[in-house]
Amino acid sequence: MSAYQKAAQQILSLAGAHPPEVGVILGSGLAGVAESFTDAVVLPYSEIDGFPPAGVEGHTGQLVMGKQGSCSVACLQGRSHAYEGHDLADLAVPIRALKAAGCKSLLITCAAGSLQKEMPPGSLMMLTDHINWPGLSPLIGPNDDEIGPRFTDLSNAYDDDLQKLIRQSASAASIALHEGVYLWCLGPNFETPAEIRAFATLGANAVGMSTVPEVLIARHCGLKVAAIAVITNLAAGMQSGLSHEQTLAAGSKAAPILTTLIGEYLQRLPGKT
Ligand code: HPA
């Protein structure tokens, strides 16, 4: 049995009568999402087969399962980034385990820099598409046909129906929601102003250092994907200097609004995927 199948069994036995319907990847500073769950159970990654070791700065490395309204949710709290030198496929086992445990969709949250002045720090941007700037994929290597096809279709990478549901959830909670294309950069350096101007001409609305590998893993195994970015800064050249501290501070300021939006979304989700 593969690691993801063993992990799925662990998840299912932990979930008891409430097998998860949706997975959520929580970016740093968004732990509050899981705090509003009822019947929550927590399992450190170190106790689950094949899950990556914790130790990512600002990330706990634990699986939190619980209910939001009638929706059974499994949250991955802790992700690894390519810039840490970790394998791009680090989250393959957790994401595939969620699928094998019965999840139909995955909601991914992240921080991003904005390429548009009209989308300032503190804004929320729903991803409608992405640009894989490094051209890397966690799916490179032999393909396991039991998990998914060799060639993954990305035409509807960010599921249209889930996007509708996020729009409805935002409007029900009177939350302003931007939409746009996310461009993935490897990091850990921020971009140069010239790169940002080039990315704008390519059609990017925001840049960030995560999410795309996770989307590729999820789409490969047949999970529907939705993603929301917290805009933490204007991109390089559009404001006077960038720092990780600012990213964290702006991220935690916007976290309560994103937490509300995710709560609304999860309550609307059952039966929709
Ligand atoms: N660039 C890349 N990643 C980011 C940024 C940025 O400006 N802000 C938050 N994550």
Percentage of residues in strands = 15-25%
Largest sheet strand order: 5-8-7-6-9
| Gyration radius over CA | 17 Å
CATH class category label: Alpha Beta
Q: How much helix, percentage-wise, in residues? A: 25-40%
Largest sheet: 5 strands, mixed, barrel
Shape: globular
Give the SSE order as H and E letters: HEHEEEHEEHEHEHEH
Spans of at least 5 consecutive residues with low confidence? none
Fourth-level CATH superfamily: Nucleoside phosphorylase domain
CATH architecture: 3-Layer(aba) Sandwich
**Structural class, please?**
alpha/beta
Name every ligand kind in the structure.
hypoxanthine
Number of helices: 7
Distance between the termini: 28 Å
Q: What is the fold named in CATH at topology level?
A: Rossmann fold
What does this molecule look like?
- This protein is of the alpha/beta class and 273 residues long.
- The chain has one domain (3-272): Nucleoside phosphorylase domain (Rossmann fold).
- Helix content is 30%, strand content 24%.
- It has seven helices and nine strands; from the N terminus they run H-E-H-E-E-E-H-E-E-H-E-H-E-H-E-H.
- It has a five-stranded mixed barrel.
- Helix 1 (3-15) crosses helix 3 and helix 4 crosses helix 7.
- It is globular and about 50 Å long.
- Hypoxanthine binds next to strand 5, strand 8 and strand 9.
